[in-house]
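Project standup — Tuesday

K.O.: blocked on the structure for the chain from last sprint. Re-posting the sequence here as requested.
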Amino acid sequence: MIKNILVFIFITSLFLSCGKSNTENKANEYGALEFEQYLTSLLASRDSLEFSQMFAKAPDTSTVNNLQKMTVIYDLFPKDIIRSIKNFGVVYRRIFAPDEGSVSAYLPAEGGYYDVSTTYRKYKNSHITQIRYSVPSDTEVNLIEFVGLYQDNKWKLLTINFLDSSI
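H.V.: unblocked you, prediction finished:
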């Protein structure tokens, strides 16, 4: 009887410690998938205010050096994207416009299937995720990629890439 209780306590504490470490440390592949789901929910609900507050602060030199050693493409820097969103520029329209070519119109607001791929990379103390959506349109498939950086114990947006020629 005591042996069974000890085994039960051991197994319970093992599950609790695994769950605790997983929820505390989001700098892993599972955390990157959760970030993708959160980002998708913001885009689908067109929450541009929360979205514009998700950008990472300027990374320190060691993080920038680590990112340069990873295979990550980024053309726009967060300050450029934030300026565009505030001015209702082209980046904002490509993401939040009501027409069929925007990301927001493409994503289902209440869950469901959408074409997304998530890549997680780690180098030294830097963690990034590349979240790529294939947004169908009348003329072509528009690819948009959000690059997330793990910073200050949470995922933040580093930049956005439009991987087609119609920006």
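K.O.: great, moving the ticket to review. Helices lie at 2-24, 29-44, 48-52, 61-69, 78-86, 90-96, 103-106. Residues 25 and 31 are 8 Å apart (CA to CA).
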